[in-house]
């Protein structure tokens, strides 16, 4: 075989292996983090302030492993809002802290 054909064969095989590993990791095992802004109760927590469609919205930030989130169809609004359950070590909630320069609303809070 010529060197050119070997290089093409190597590139094709490397692409197939890389695609297969990525498919397994992201679609089968779902090994990645999901970040979302979810509604926040400003009477209990220090919430981030965002501009909503017609009113100010208060939110907190959640990061959670994708494989702990139920599969749903977001385009059809079938998904529940993300939340952390007791003892879920892969889930973190970030509340607003004004000392970092964010606009906050609600009682002073520390991150959990």
Question: How would you sum up this structure, described in words?
Answer:
The chain is an alpha+beta fold. It has two domains: 31 residues; 81 residues, no CATH class. 23% of the residues lie in helices and 24% in strands. The chain has one helix and five strands; from the N terminus they run αβββββ. Strands 1, 2, 3, 4 and 5 form a five-stranded antiparallel sheet that branches. Strand 2 and strand 3 form a beta hairpin. The protein is elongated. The termini are far apart.
* Main pleated-sheet profile: 5 strands, antiparallel
Q: Termini distance?
A: 61 Å
Radius of gyration: 21 Å
Instruction: Estimate percent helicity.
Output: 10-25%
Number of strands: 5
Series of H and E elements: HEEEEE
Instruction: Report the average pLDDT across residues.
Output: 88
Task: Describe the global form.
Answer: elongated
Poorly predicted regions are: none
Percent in strands:
15-25%
Number of domains: 2
Structural class: alpha+beta
Number of helices: 1
Topology:
Elements: H1 3-28, E1 33-39, E2 47-51, E3 56-65, E4 92-94, E5 104-105
What's the gist of this structure?
The protein has 112 residues and is an alpha+beta fold. It has one helix at 3-28, and strands spanning 33-39, 47-51, 56-65, 92-94, 104-105. The protein is built from one helix and five strands.
């Amino acid at each position: 075989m010529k060197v050119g054909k070997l290089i093409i064969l190597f590139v094709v095989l490397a692409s197939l292996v890389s695609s297969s590993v990525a498919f397994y990791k992201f679609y089968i095992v779902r090994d990645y983090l999901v970040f979302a802004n979810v509604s926040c109760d400003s009477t209990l927590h220090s919430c981030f302030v965002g501009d909503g469609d017609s009113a100010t919205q208060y939110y907190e930030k959640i990061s959670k492993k994708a494989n702990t989130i139920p599969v749903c169809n977001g385009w059809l609004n079938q998904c529940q809002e993300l939340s952390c359950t007791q003892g879920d070590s892969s889930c973190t909630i970030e509340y607003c802290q004004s000392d970092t320069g964010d606009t906050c609303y609600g009682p002073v809070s520390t991150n959990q």
